[in-house]
Design brief:
With about 525 residues, the protein is mainly α. The protein has 24 helices and no strands.
């Protein structure tokens, strides 16, 4: 008996385990199906773009009239319409329900498609694509065709007891068809605006899509059907070609706004690179058009915003490309924005080599700006270089500070050779400030600043007496600052020569500039 009981208990336990395993398997299967359906529903809702007003507006109108149509069809509600004789019913079915609806339908659809096709040719074929699959397009088709088919069926099968109910249904449906024209025209007019399509396209660049991007996708390149940001770029490029400044600026601003709305949890280098590459493509087109200077500036600022933290090297490279394109096309606003954005990147990033790279870009820009006689831009460039010099000094980056002063000297020297006196005076003031500031902490750097000023002075035409005097005064100010700081910075022991009363360091410091004064 004990053996039999054990066998029974083991069988029961096995059965319970089997049932439990089957239940877990069934639940897992149901969970997988639920996730799949959830994904299908999300894709369908995204495809219909039901979050947009142009989707729920017509559906709301249809829903409102359904509140009247359903009670009329079931006989719950009577509208007291005078439709009780055959002649009046015939008029309702043929003239109101069928002829009027069919005539309006043909005119409305044909005119709408012609208008949308015109907008698609002007901006992007995707405007037609989105309109054809829009809720307003299909709701209009379904409502009008449904009314015509329903009218034919009711007219063929109506009898006296149901005549009032059937006539009321046709009238309610016909009024719905007429009222639906209001949202149809409003939304069709919205589709003629590229900014409206840009908004719809950017909603497709959702967090789920962006989180799935990786470096391999960017390296191999997304296909045109997979790249959801590409249609926005295409519309922007066509807008630039047509000279539509409003659309261009709006598209760039909305694109940057979409990036800024990305949650921090999914932000990464791949997403940054994805946006930077598309902005660069838009920037090339904007820079090449003289009328799109402001748009080009928006693009460069966008690249600065996106690449400032995780992708500074890529951002610097792309801004470089657009900046030098702007020089070739004489797009002054874009050049100015390039200088400002590179300076902004140096302040945002912690990349050690970023400052050196930016200074290299600035130095490569000098000659082209001198040739183009960009007086104002050169002064902006000298201001940016001075800012980099000060930032490097605060950070203790001696090499970067020296490199920045070299670039500042190059600006002044080339400007002196080209006769750009205002630029020379601007650089002189900045070098003087740098030399005076460095006199106490780094006298060697201050002495090198004196030499820089002297080299600029030699490159300047001798007829520019005021500028020459300013340079000489600046040199004297830096030299005086070095002399004043010498007793505090000198580490040499006092000289034993009691007659002099000065330290050896003071004598050396004072004689160190005698050759420069002689040359002057």
């Amino acid at each position: 008996m004990d053996i039999a009981n054990n066998i029974v208990e083991q069988c029961d336990e096995s059965l319970r385990r089997f049932q439990h395993a089957r239940l877990e398997e069934l639940l897992a299967y149901v969970l997988v199906i639920a996730k799949q359906w959830r994904q299908y529903v999300k894709n369908w809702l995204r495809w219909l773009d039901l979050t947009s007003w142009d989707s729920w507006f017509p559906l709301g109108v249809i829903g409102l009239f359904s509140l009247f149509a359903i009670p009329a069809a079931t006989g719950v509600m009577s509208f007291g319409l005078p439709v009780g004789n055959d002649e009046r019913l015939h008029i309702i079915y043929t003239e109101v329900g069928l002829q009027t609806t069919a005539g309006i339908f043909a005119i409305v659809i044909s005119l709408s498609l012609v208008a949308i096709q015109f907008a698609a040719q002007e901006y992007s074929h995707r405007i037609m694509e989105y309109y054809i699959r829009s809720v307003i397009f299909w709701s209009t088709i379904v409502v009008y065709l449904g009314i015509m088919i329903m009218t034919i069926i009711l007219q063929a099968g109506v009898d006296d007891p149901q005549s009032t109910r059937a006539g009321a249904i046709v009238i309610v449906a016909s009024v719905l068809a007429i009222v639906l024209l209001v949202p149809h025209f409003i939304i069709t007019a919205a589709y003629l605006k590229p900014e409206f399509i840009v908004e719809k396209l950017l909603r497709r660049v959702d967090d789920e899509f962006l989180s799935g991007l990786d470096e391999s996708d960017l390296a191999n390149g997304l296909s045109s059907s997979q790249d959801r940001l590409l249609p926005v770029v295409e519309i922007c490029e066509r807008s630039i070609d047509r000279g539509d400044l409003t659309t261009t600026r709006a598209a760039i601003s909305r694109m940057i706004g979409r990036y800024e709305a990305i949650p921090e949890s999914i932000q990464g280098t791949s997403i940054d690179n994805y946006f930077i590459e598309h902005l660069t493509r838009m920037g090339r087109k904007a820079v090449a058009h003289a009328d799109e200077e402001e748009a080009a500036g928006h693009v460069i600022r966008g690249i600065e915003t996106i690449g400032g933290i995780r992708s500074p090297s890529l951002a610097i490279e792309r801004i470089d490309i657009l900046g030098f394109m702007a020089v070739r096309h004489e797009t002054e606003a874009a050049i100015a924005q390039m200088i400002a954005s590179l300076l902004g990147l140096s302040q945002k990033t912690t990349d050690i080599g970023a400052t050196a790279t930016i200074l290299t870009s600035y130095q490569a820009l000098i000659h082209r700006l001198i040739v183009g006689d960009y007086d104002r831009i050169l002064r902006q460039l000298s201001e940016a270089v001075e800012s980099l010099s000060k930032a490097s000094t605060r950070a203790g980056a001696v090499d970067d500070t020296a490199r920045a002063l070299d670039v500042l000297e190059a600006i002044g020297h080339d400007a002196a050779s080209a006769g750009l006196v205002r630029v020379v005076l601007d650089v002189t003031a900045r070098l003087k400030n740098a030399g005076v500031s460095a006199a106490e902490s780094n006298p060697d750097s201050a002495q090198e600043t004196v030499l820089r000023l002297l080299r600029i002075e030699r490159a300047l035409d001798q007829s520019e007496r005021d500028a020459l005097a300013t340079l000489a005064f600046a040199r004297g100010e830096v030299e005086a600052a070095v002399k004043r700081s010498a007793p505090r910075t000198s580490t040499n022991p006092p000289a034993d020569d009691g007659a002099s009363g000065l330290s050896g360091g003071d004598n050396l410091d004072a004689s160190g500039f005698s050759d420069l004064w002689d040359e002057d």
